[in-house]
Amino acid sequence: MANQHSAAEEKKHHKHEGPKKHIIAFIFSILLTVIAFAMVAAGEINTTFIYFMLVLMAILQVFVQMGFWMHMKDRGHVFPIVGILSGVVIVFTIVIMAEYWAWW
Predict the structure, then answer these.
(1) How far is CA 59 from the centre of its chain?
(2) SS (H, E, C) the chain
(3) 52 and 28 housed in the same domain
(4) Which of 39, 49, 79, 89 is the most buried (most CB within 10 A)?
(5) Structural domain of residue 63, as residue ranges?
(6) Once rounded to an integer, what is the mean pLDDT over residues 52-80?
(7) 87 and 103: one domain?
(8) What confidence score (pLDDT) does residue 91 get?
């Protein structure tokens, strides 16, 4: 009887999303990729603007991938998120320090 109760509680906390959100996320990912390719292929746009937009779309793509495909938006993913953010901070620190060292 206790096992049935805990299984029912577990089902309450884990809700299946269904394919609708995954299809929307997939279409959004494809759209971001097509826009990036189209901007670069156009060639007549300011390169600074293209770089800025590519970085912005890459950041959006990371959030879509992490949120929908790796399920980082769900509860119980605190440690992976902390690990990923720590890695990002370390990489940015290394890049900034390498640039500073090269310009010294």
Answers:
(1) 7
(2) CHHHHHHHHHHHHCCCCCHHHHHHHHHHHHHHHHHHHHHHHHCCCCHHHHHHHHHHHHHHHHHHHHHHHCCCCCCCCHHHHHHHHHHHHHHHHHHHHHHHHHHC
(3) yes
(4) 39
(5) 2-73
(6) 82
(7) yes
(8) 94
**Percent of the chain surpassing pLDDT 70:** 79
97: which 2 tokens? 């320090």
The structure tokens listed for 31 are 């759209």
Which residue's structure tokens are 């049935």? 4
Answer yes or no: do 89 and 104 share one domain.
Answer: yes
What span, in angstroms and rounded, lies between the C-alpha atoms of 44 and 46? Answer: 7
Closest by CA to 22, choosing from 67, 72, 78, is: 67
The number of folded domains in the chain is 2
Is the dihedral angle over the CA atoms 93, 96, 102, 104 positive or is it negative?
A: negative
Same domain, 53 and 12: yes
User: 93 and 54, same structural domain?
Assistant: no
